[in-house]
Amino acid sequence: MELRNEIKDVILLAAQRVLSQTTEGFSEADEAKLRANFEERISRYSRRFPILDLLDELENVNDAAQTAAIATNADMKRQRRIANLGWEEELKTFPTPISDQWVNAIQEAAAEAAEKYFRKASKYFEKNQDEQATECLCSAIICSIAATAALLGWPHRDQEDDLRTVVALATGSLPEEGKSIYKLLQSASQQGQDLNSAFAAAMGQPDAVRNGAYEEAGRTKDEAFLFARTAVTLAVQLGRRLR
Description:
With 243 residues, the protein is mostly helical. It has helices spanning 5-22, 28-42, 53-80, 87-91, 100-126, 130-151, 159-171, 181-184, 190-203, 205-211, 213-216, 221-242. α6 (130-151) packs antiparallel against α10 (205-211). The model is unreliable at 80-98 (pLDDT under 50).
């Protein structure tokens, strides 16, 4: 199954944040190579935990960064005939990306990606392209839901995983396969019910636009954003409580 664009956005933005910290001191050329190498590998993420694959990739990036720095040092010594720069010793003290910083990177990346989609939605609404606008609002929600699921160790590959995450955030535990989510939601907290309602309303908007139900219901741009913003905000809040 091809990786969703929203997941790619979160992964790449998070990786860039970590790389900016762990590759400090490297040349722009070396850093560009690392970023390009990383972005190329993202398409290989096909399991049910694609954002968590970032952990493995960050390990690889850290190794690649050290290799690049050592190669650069050796090249400089060979071409300029200068003494050892001591980079090999420095590399031993480089912080590994697998630390608390990756959690912050995921959170910040999801927020940035969601805002990007919110901005795109505004531009589409200005052009009266409601279908594209509501699809962007759905993408903003997916960024938040998927990142929250990843931080909790839950699957986040597809729409079914998104729904199970919403139920889990609403009720406090990930539903077992085959369980009726509608029955489970009856025990959800008020915030959980609000999340589920906002999520369902927002994710159903593109189809409503295509079927003409959006205009018939008198929906407005402000309402569309309200549903999406509510879903994003509550997903983050409820996710923090469960970590």
